[in-house]
Specification:
243 residues; mainly alpha
């Protein structure tokens, strides 16, 4: 089973790399939908797209950087520590492995669903919704009544479903807020916060668990996602787009 899952993941990565490498020809004779012109700054005037030098001086850019850091720190905490918490309430290790397998399936489904949501509304609006949903389930992840195996199974799948949409929605939100022309530079800088979030997990998260326990540790991570959603809403209100 694990070899099959690993092989499927490898093939998906190869296909994704090929799609990124292959440039799709632009058909200028097709009229863009109105929402597409609103969501992506491709249709904006060239003067409205910030250069990398101006972007890194923008307060909104660094607020978005902080939002990415908070979100990835929160979800990385769940990704690393959920099994440790599961072993404190579930004695059946085989059942935990089953949850682990299904969580990756829901991770993939989440990527598809949240990507679809980004096509129907603003990408940053979808991202705000994702973060609010994730915050609710993270805050209640370790409540005593969740000691039920079935409820814990459901909560874990929902969190991984949300996790699946994080990268694609942050990437699309980067485009909608700062333009596509310098997307590689902008998102590259923002993605550095992912490395910082890993350092945060290594240096501090274990302390949280040992000092305050899983319950309050999960609540803190939920609060980080909620702060991230507020920051994105502020950026959208003060930037070119509105929520």
């Amino acid at each position: 089973i694990f070899l099959w899952i690993g092989g499927t993941y490898f093939v998906a990565q190869v296909i994704g790399c090929i799609c990124l490498y292959t440039r799709i020809p632009v058909q200028t004779d097709i009229q863009e939908p109105l929402y597409s012109q609103q969501v992506f700054s491709l249709a904006l005037d060239e003067s409205e797209i910030l250069t990398p030098k101006k972007t890194i001086k923008s307060i909104n850019f660094w607020l978005f950087f902080l939002s990415f850091f908070l979100t990835y720190s929160s979800f990385t905490f769940i990704y690393i520590f959920w099994i440790g918490y599961a072993k404190t309430i579930i004695t059946d290790l085989f059942f935990i492995q089953q949850i682990n397998i299904f969580s990756y399936i829901f991770f993939s489904l989440g990527s598809i669903w949240w990507g679809y949501m980004a096509d129907t509304v603003y990408p940053h609006t979808s991202l705000i919704r994702l973060l609010i949903v994730a915050s609710c389930f993270q805050a209640t992840y370790s409540f005593p009544y969740l000691a039920s195996d079935l409820l814990f199974f459901l909560w874990t799948l929902i969190l991984f479903f949300c996790l699946g949409g994080v990268v694609c929605l942050f990437a699309l939100s980067t485009i909608s807020l700062f333009g596509l022309k310098y997307f590689e530079f902008n998102f590259g800088i923002i993605y550095i916060s992912h490395t910082l979030s890993v350092l945060y997990i290594i240096l501090l998260s274990r302390y949280f668990v040992d000092a305050i326990g899983y319950q309050w540790a999960f609540v803190i991570q939920a609060g980080m996602n909620l702060i991230s959603a507020i920051l994105i809403a502020i950026i959208a209100k003060t930037g070119k787009l509105s929520v």
